[in-house]
Amino acid sequence: MSMRRRTLLGLGAAAATGVGMSLLGSSAAAGTLSPRMASPRQAPTAQFAIGVRQFFWSRGNRQLTTKIFYPAAGTPGGNPIPNAPIANGVFPIAEWSHGMGCNSDCYSSQTHDLASAGFICPAPSFSDNTNIGSVYNGNWSKDVSEVLTRTLALNSTAGDPFAGHIDTRVGVGVSGHSMGGMTTHGLLTAWPDNRIVAAVPVACVDMGNPAGLHANVLFIHGDHDPTCDYNSARAAYAELPSPKAFLTHVGADHGQYLTPDYRYYAQTKNTFLDWFRWSLYGDTAARDRLRSDATSNGTSWQAALT
Q1: N or C: which end of the chain has fewer CB within 10 A?
Q2: pTM for the full model?
Q3: What is the DSSP string of the chain?
Q4: How far apart are CA 67 and CA 85, in angstroms?
């Protein structure tokens, strides 16, 4: 899709205020991992406690302060525990990118849900979090690729608590909202990262032509979004090959469906998590639940899963 056809995100309304309840090689060219779809197995069925570690990484002169939320040993429930021991097991990566004016803590519902469900969730805080130009010039997408590289490297870092606990065989997942959703779509188009096998752009606009990655892509959007044009996201969906799906929150705005007190939040949460369970664990039961996950009086669902 040409730049002329894309709908730009307006600066004034882009903030995702109130949304959060509070691989070695940084690009397709540099990557050394050849991801494949996970061998069929069941994703964890019980919830985990949540741990969190903070890293002060960088890419050139760009600071990449990143919190990694992860399944932790201990009793499920409660707030993330700093530097808690990681749970027994090997867990795939599902990254989250925040929206304008936010940071890694703004979307705790999403990052905590991922960690408690059995995913390692790096969540960078972009240093220029009000600069939409850094999304359109690829800096945010390139930052995510760097964060993925750094996170994956922990699996083979001697003495690191994550060593041996990160599933590096199946590729990675990426997701995000608003400017973070655009960043996610950018990783499938203008700034591709061939380690990505699953993506969930939420409230995004079209960032360009598909780069041909073999990724399962789920769009989530409100059809009354005043900030990120719903029709632009629909055009982005139409251009991608299957497997793909589109969850529409009928009558919803830019991000209310990401908050647990929203009437149809369960449709967001369950579809979001089962998309990653299917794509990164190979859990076909999770795939088969997607339609029922997404269905309600306030949503519509379109999918091409084969």
Answers
A1: C
A2: 0.90
A3: --GGGSPPPPSTT-B-TT-S----SSSTTT------PPPS-PPP-S--EEEEEEEEEEETTEEEEEEEEEEESS-S-SSPEETPPBPSS-B-BB--B--BT--TTTTHHHHHHHHHTT-BEEEEEETTTT-THHHHTTHHHHHHHHHHHHHHHGGGSTT-TTTT-B--SS-EEEEEETHHHHHHHHTTTTS--TTEEEEEEES----SS------EEEEEEETT-SSS-HHHHHHHHHHSPSSEEEEEETT--SSGGGSTTSTTHHHHHHHHHHHHHHHHH--HHHHHHHHHHH-STTEEEEEE--
A4: 15
Q: Taking residues 122-129, report their average pLDDT.
A: 96
249 contact partners, CB below 8 Å, separation of at least 6: 220, 221, 222, 223, 256, 257, 264, 267, 268, 298, 299
The model's pLDDT over 220-251, given as tens digits with 9 standing for 90+, comes to 999 999 999 999 999 999 999 999 999 999 99
Angle at alpha carbon of residue 59, lines to 189 and 32, rounded to 5°: 60
